[in-house]
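Following up on my earlier thread - several people asked me to post the actual chain instead of describing it. Fair enough. Here it is, all 468 residues.
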Amino acid sequence: MTTAKELQKNLTWEFSHIAKKNTAAKEAAFAYCEGYKEFLNTAKTEREFTAKAVEKLAAAGYVPFEEGKAYKPGDKVYFVNRGKSMAMSTFGTAPLEAGVRLNAAHIDSPRLDLKPNPVYENHEMAYFKTHYYGGIRKYQWVTVPLAMHGVIIKKNGELVKVCVGENAGDPVFCVTDLLPHLGAKQNERKLSEGIKGEELNIVIGSLPFVDESEEEGVKDAVKLNALALLNEMYGITEHDFMRAEIEFVPATKAQDVGLDRSLIGAYGQDDKVCAYTALTAEIDTKAPYYTTVTVLADKEEIGSYGNTGLNSDFVLHYLEDLAATQGANIRKLLRNTTALSSDVNGAYDPSFASVYEERNSCFVNKGPVLTKYTGARGKSGSNDASAETMAKVISIMDEADVFWQIGELGAVDEGGGGTVALYVASMDMDVVDLGVPILCMHSPFELSSKLDVYYTYKAFAAFLESDK
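Reply from S.P.:
Thanks for posting it. Predicted structure:
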């Protein structure tokens, strides 16, 4: 007779803490995450991530993709889209009409962007005007050390790379906030309006430009001094900001968190954690059955719009070019492709338990999370992965002994969010979301588990190498 304990063991399921099931995983995970932290520190923007990825790809033997060239199994190529997104592949032994293994992550993150005409002076203080990018909680971005990253195109066409606040000895920047002694009226605002968008002004200087040959001085001398310093550093003028992409991001470095050093705290882990694990899994794939396509996209945080986001056709065009190398039918390639939309999910936070549904939440240290659907208000704006797609991906991970879990993005009607999955699905592919559980998502200092990061890499590697 079957006992209750036997039935419970055979019929019920519970996702386990990785360290309780595999005590040896910690060492490998900690070692892998040292490279991840280093990458985070030097690739805080989509342009920087793309450039660093190209360096790693070139070192691993990848070459720029050439249209019309014949490729053999094991060949490795990459394509860069306007310096801010990219795709890369390892050719497999199966014909392209059998489909590819596509893994898509994004490399943009919430931040403060400069307005086109940003420099101004107010009461002998110089500031930058900003427009926030992506879904931020604005109050989290005040009194935080910020670094200035980006590019400026000068009138003569020269591209100038800008980076201030990351190196030892660099100045940093800051958005100010009220002192509590004078914050009574501000305290009455709703949390979402505690800091308003037009209050996210960045302090850039307080000293005037002094010309001893002029008795009266000049108007807006503090602004002029800031512009003079920028001109000295980069040879730019105020007019050049209209031909610029300047982003302000936290100046902090990736750090271990907790006495046990089990967590990583850093800016931009949504979604650079999935992008880095996808990149390294792609590089480590040597002889796949299916041709791999790893995509690192831009603009996800604002809907994936624009010609560097996945709501454009740049990935479709890359796949068409791949198909042309074998004279393959692109429709068959797309229809037979299995894809991952690799983005983070919100990890269960016991301090704010009411916005989660515990049975269907993801947790730190239980592995990458399969998210069948995202969206909001009845799954609106979501790809809802089929049972067949879920079964295939779960089978791949189980056969590779990868720890994984299931999770939604919060309780029903508490909010929601989206990923690039729906844009991948619109190309007639089977796709499901898979990524790292994150605490403090979209904040200047997000938390991830080293075990989760490592097993996300393992999941991606298994997906790319499987012949299912």
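The first strand starts at residue 63 and ends at 64. That should answer part of your original question.
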